[in-house]
Amino acid sequence: MLQQTQVARVLERFPAFIASFPSVHALASAPLSKVLAAWSGLGYYRRARNLHAAARHIVEHFNGRVPPDPESLQELPGVGRYTAGAISSIVFHRPVPIVDGNVARVLMRLDGKPFPHASPQALRWAWTQAESLLAAAAAARLDPAPLNEGLMELGAIICTPRTPACNACPLSDRCTAFRKSLQNKIPAPRPSPTLPRRFCEAVIVRDSRGRLLVEQRPHSGMWAGLWQAPTWERSDRAARANEVEAWIGAPVTRKARFRHATSHRDMRFTVWEASEVPSSGPPTRKLLSPSRIRSLALSSPQERILLQPAR
Ligand code: SF4
């Protein structure tokens, strides 16, 4: 949950999620729709799908117990080298490295290696470097968990990207970047990529009983299987009112505009309100009460559109 979601948001959802799925078996036997609904509001739903599939894999192949070694852990959907290293070293105390952006930055500064931020070259070098550190710790019979956690914390709290607190750093006397005043040059900056733009025309359709029209997204691609207000996505430009009216089949009024940036797309939402319920539309659409919609899995922009329509 904490990968790319703020701690405060996770703290709101974690207890209820664990209460609903208190064991690997409970999670594995739950329907995916229930897991996605419990994940609602945390975003990046692929993580919930992977967690569910991983629980099933653990039940089928590992007798319901999370495996301790990084190779078996990497068989689980959504578990790459970083997560496998974190579980293996912190939970099972195996001498396996973890490298994230923070750790790579600390290691590069300590050694004075000015690789570009998050470049494949930087990560390759940092993984090799971290492996040697863990091997040295294992040879000295040191627990790998505090070493890995210490490196991550140092990068998150002290050796920060812009203004590292070198005077408070326990490693300053062996840090090349500090000695040569290169902290701001390591890692080297990378030009930020231009994200492809998507224009999303979302239409709020409300009937006389206050129910809202919703549709389910396809089961693959972005926000797979989540629910939304009828939404027309295009890549060329925002639609005009008459185009939205022709698409939805009812007169519309524009209510709001907002941007939603994901790691891969710059999404421009326009929220419209229809003055009547269209007489026809795809069979995947249905009218549901707001309380029913609250129990569905929604992406965060759609939560904003459907559940906070006044904003
Ligand atoms: S001395 Fe400064 S640059 Fe070097 S590791 Fe510590 S915080 Fe980072």
Q: What distance lies between the first and last C-alpha atoms, to the nearest angstrom? A: 27 Å
Overall strand count: 7
Biggest sheet statistics: 4 strands, mixed
Question: Roughly how many Å is the radius of gyration?
Answer: 24 Å
Give an overview of the whole structure.
This protein has 311 residues and is an alpha+beta fold. It folds into 3 domains: 7-91, Hypothetical protein, domain 2 (Endonuclease III, domain 1), CATH 1.10.340; 101-185, Endonuclease Iii, domain 2, CATH 1.10.1670; 197-307, Nucleoside Triphosphate Pyrophosphohydrolase, CATH 3.90.79.10. Helix content is 41%, strand content 14%. The protein has helices spanning 7-20, 24-29, 32-38, 46-61, 70-73, 81-91, 101-111, 120-139, 144-158, 176-179, 241-248, 290-294, 300-307, and strands at 197-204, 212-216, 227-228, 231-234, 252-261, 266-274, 285-288. The protein has a 4-stranded mixed beta sheet with strand order 4-1-6-5. A hairpin with a 4-residue loop joins strand 5 and strand 6 (266-274). Helix 6 crosses helix 9, helix 7 packs across helix 8 and helix 7 packs across helix 9. The chain is globular. The structure holds iron/sulfur cluster. Iron/sulfur cluster binds next to helix 7 and helix 10. Iron/sulfur cluster binds at residues 106, 109-110, 158-159, 164, 166, 169, 171-172, 175, 177-178, 183.
